Amino acid sequence: MQHFARLLESLAFTPARTGKIRHLVTHFRNRPDPERGYALAALTGDLELRKVTPSLLRALVTERVDAELFGYSYDFVGDLAETIALIWPTGAPPEDLPLSQLVGELEQAGKADLPGLIAARLDRLDPSGRHAYLKLATGGLRVGVSARLARAALAEYGTVPATEIEELWHGLTPPYDSLFAWLDGGEKPVSAAHAPFRPVMLSTGTDLDQLGALDPAEYAAEWKWDGIRVQASVDRGTRRLYSRTGEDISASFPDLLDALEFEGTLDGELLVRRGAEVAPFGELQKRLNRKSVGKGLLQSHPAALRLYDALLIEGRDLRADPFTTRRKALEGLRNRFDPDRLDLSPLLAFDTWDDLAALRADPPDAVIEGVMIKRKDSPYTAGRAKGPWFKWKRDPMVVDAVLIYAQRGHGKRSGYYSDFTFALWDGDQLVPVGKAYFGFTDDELKSLDRFVRNNTVERFGPVRSVKPELVLEIAFEGLNRSPRHKSGVAMRFPRIARIRSDKPAAEADRLETLKALLPPAI
Amino acid sequence: MLHPRPAGLYCPAGDFHIDPVRPVARALITHGHADHARSGHGAVLATRQTLDIMAIRYGQDFAGQTQVAEGPLRIGDAEVAFHPAGHVLGSAQIAIRTGGRRFTVSGDYCRRANPACAPFEPVPCDVFVTEATFALPVFHHPEPEGQIARLLASVQAFPERAHLVGAYALGKAQRLIALLRAAGWEAPIYIHGALERLCAYHIEQGVDLGPLRPATDDGMTKADFAGQIVIAPPSAFAATWAQRFPDPVICFASGWMQVRARARQRGVELPLVISDHVDWPDLTRTIAELDPEQVWVTHGREEALIRHCTLEGRTARPLNLVGYEDEAE
């Protein structure tokens, strides 16, 4: 438990992804089975524990500490688990119980035994151990590690491709002994799961200059739809929908799952679609990250899948076959699909790259964000190989916005103001419309940093407000309505394309100009 | 006999204020932190070291006249004596006897061993006037040696990065350096310019700080700071000053670092819980040991300490003094 507690502490305070991975790798290396496996399961959210409620914990602590003093402390600390971890009276010297034992007890304890069990454990842990234990027991680790990051750390630990871990993941259960045995040099476990995730093939960006060196006759092209790339898998009665990183998102899309009337693994774009009309990305977002979906939402925001490719059909693995063969096999399934739920992404007819450029410049649907170009003879290979698949996105949207706030960065950006909030004019007011922290070169970062320091108006902790004088050209990939933002809009992937020192702030764009770029409301 | 006034705690029998927050005719100063020791008083009585520190910070003419507190003194109808408080170099509690009652004004104090100053000395009294900076039962400050070990482990784990440790210029910085020396860290320690004169003064007073170098040494390239420890006031992290170090690990030595949200708010990657104040167990133990008739609480988390005293059957009251910052720890 001591080691797990220390790991959580390091992860909570390490801002950089590489640093977090390093802490995880060290933990996997130094801890025995099944300890490291339970730590991993706690981080990926794969432990099925009896959930401990805040009121149970409050009752436990106020039996031991004056309720008024506890109240003052909780007000100050702001986090229930942390307050209890710090305030719990220490009695007997701490004992370092294995994580596996603590998890096992919590899994098995009956409801009536739970308070006694927790109190007994808290009595024998030190403060950071108590904190980790309470986070474990309440199921809210929130230490800034996603399941995906944990799997990336596993890949680094075993020096295997992350895609292989993702492929295995859904067939494994805590404490993952077979997985660790493989990463330590043993045999690779065989996935026993039905409808497992298969790592997806990704594309690299391109433009007309680069395409010029290629023979258009060797390539197929299709629209790049602005939804979410997913994999749909049906295997002996099991139906699954995965994100392209291998997260199982089936629970959010029961309507689509019902329509998966095939046996195999298909690759496509998840969309909200009403008949022929594809809804903008913002509407799809409403369907994401839900454990269950209400009837109303299922009706108003029906999910659909637009298919790009086939990896397996009826037990036959097509991944080594050329794209054209896979595409034919996919077309062979077409008559089984409910056309409201499943359809094929059409191939585009073109002879020259200029033909394709013309199509890209004038797509038939607003929910198209460019074209995909795929080598006809390419097999389906996991990961982002440079070459067989290209994405040629439409040009980003841009606005000229005014820099109003800047926040300090950390790590290599320590001491630099590197996170920038920008605003557009609404009447004579500047309304913040987004935040960007990339897109600039190191030299541009220095000049932005200098501007912030020389033009600071007010400081709020790590944030400074600046004189509204510097115009930034902001490039972004799309725009959604957002009631959570004062401006009512949220940009996708905003970045600083250029610093427009030449442009006076009064000539920056207006909020209504940005809003005109919004997709039509339903 | 002793009561709060807008300028601070006032003793009519001796016509003086203790740690006044605005200029007064006669001030008794417990220690050199800026919120307790201000310039511009008519006369200042303090320990030799506190007077020296005030002169370093404000210049020689920081007060109309100064007097070193040595042995018991008589001021008007009050008898006054200074006793070590264990907080920072020169820090003192002020014991006052007037009208047959004994008051101990503890200022800020700490009961853990501190290589950079004299240890706290319990002074029996009828009224104990105490701070309450960390007066919540969540504050249990660990032994500082363990925290230094965490810092050194991190230096070993990240040899390509500099460790930038935030520590207040008076007291915390020198304690940290002395603790690092005691833990066997012999390499030069790089210090921010704001620490130089106060470090030099500690060395002069016999505190062994080992080799110190300015962090702004022109001969040092960015890469030279890899694996080094740099100490600076936390405000320096926001300045361009911090840009000279390679991918720095931001550390902060403070009692507040026990609360995770506090550490994260400040962007601290390695929080070091090292405090120059009493934590909850030391604070409550001190009150129990002194067993005064009354406890008066100056600044910090007064409600919690008063609640504790009430539960223990002690008389306690808040003085509601304003002007003391508890962030400066």
TrEMBL record, chain A:
Keyword set includes Glycosyltransferase: no
InterPro entries: ATP-dep_DNA_ligase, ATP_dep_DNA_lig_pp_1105_fam, DNA_ligase_ATP-dep_C, DNA_ligase_ATP-dep_cent, DNA_ligase_ATP-dep_CS, NA-bd_OB-fold
Catalytic reactions of this protein: ATP + (deoxyribonucleotide)n-3'-hydroxyl + 5'-phospho-(deoxyribonucleotide)m = (deoxyribonucleotide)n+m + AMP + diphosphate
GO molecular function, one term: DNA ligase (ATP) activity
Record Gene3D superfamilies: DNA ligase/mRNA capping enzyme (3.30.470.30), Nucleic acid-binding proteins (2.40.50.140)
Signal sequence bounds: none
Keywords: Cell cycle, Cell division, DNA damage, DNA recombination, DNA repair, Ligase, Magnesium, Metal-binding
Protein name: DNA ligase (ATP)
Taxon lineage: Bacteria, Pseudomonadati, Pseudomonadota, Alphaproteobacteria, Rhodobacterales
One Pfam family of this chain: DNA_ligase_A_C
EC main group: ligase
Listed GO biological process terms: cell division; DNA recombination; DNA repair
Species this chain originates from: Pseudooceanicola pacificus
Key word Transit peptide present: no
UniProt domain ATP-dependent DNA ligase family profile: residue ranges: 305-426
EC number: 6.5.1.1
